Amino acid sequence: MKNSMIRNGTAILLAICIAACSTGGVSAPSAGDKSDRLKIAEAMFQERCKKSGEFIYRTAENVEGIFLLKIRPSKSNFDEQFAMTDPYGHDSSGESYLKTFFSEFYRTPQIPIVNWVRPVGFRFVEAIDPKDGQRYRYTGRIDEPWRYDASYSKSYRRFVLDRESTAGKPPHYGITYDDISTREDREYWIAGSRLRVVDLQTDEVMAERIGYMMDRGQGNTSGGRSPWLLATSHACPSFPRSPGGHPVYSDQTRNFVVKVLTPLAEKSDANTNN
């Protein structure tokens, strides 16, 4: 029995050695392999960029509210290669995503208005809560907690959302997004995104933005590197840049939507800023 176990173990080791020798063993990709891979990825990325851009087919004015057909996932995807979470289009999550569609959100001291944000928004937003499947209408307001809690400073103000369930007719216009990456795209760390504004009464696509980005490090995570975060510097359409030169992908959904749907409150907001 003991001799049989030794013979079996020897046979397994021999098979492993033969396999290793026939394949050249396990080794890291050479510099040449990495260079070739990046060339292929760049070529694929440039080809996809030919289809990218903002395409506005029809606009609407005096829009009071919108229906967010999808809410951005609560977890940001910085390094998951094959998670189809639309990393190009991801700007904020959950309730924070809803807040970006209200102008008051940008008028609190915690959220300074910067040159890539248009401080206009809608009067309400509707969305389905995935926890209960119920559609809710959200409205926003500026809260001054010092009025009911003495621990807060009188100068502190914050934006909060109120919501109530609704079973009435949904808003006329809806916003949705999709991750349009293919398996081949993701193999080369390319992420594709499609953002759409839809007329829910006619199912007409009023506008869409198609975007791609690519990680030039091809998934390298050494030193805490975040592939999808760094891919925002290699995107089409490209993201606006902060004064420090960094790509700014926050508020991108809302900034595109208000190019298509002019909020009812825009005129009064514009007067406030003058």
How does this model look, in words?
With 274 residues, the chain is of the alpha/beta class. The chain has one domain. Helices cover 27% and strands 24% of the residues. The protein contains 7 helices and 11 strands. It has helices at residues 2-23, 31-49, 94-99, 183-187, 227-231, 252-260, 266-273; strands at 53-56, 60-63, 65-68, 124-128, 135-143, 158-165, 173-179, 190-199, 204-214, 235-236, 261-263. Strands 1, 3, 4, 5, 6, 7, 8, 9 and 10 form a 9-stranded mixed sheet that branches. The longest helix is centred in the N-terminal third of the chain and has 22 residues, at 2-23. The radius of gyration is 25 Å and the shape is globular.
Helix content: 25-40%
Q: Which structural class is indicated by helix and strand composition?
A: alpha/beta
Order of helices and strands: HHEEEHEEEEHEEHEHEH
Q: What is the CA-atom radius of gyration, in angstroms?
A: 25 Å
Number of domains: 1
Global outline: globular
Mean pLDDT: 85
Mind sketching the topology for me?
Layout lengths: L1 H22 L7 H19 L3 E4 L3 E4 L1 E4 L25 H6 L24 E5 L6 E9 L14 E8 L7 E7 L3 H5 L2 E10 L4 E11 L12 H5 L3 E2 L15 H9 E3 L2 H8 L1
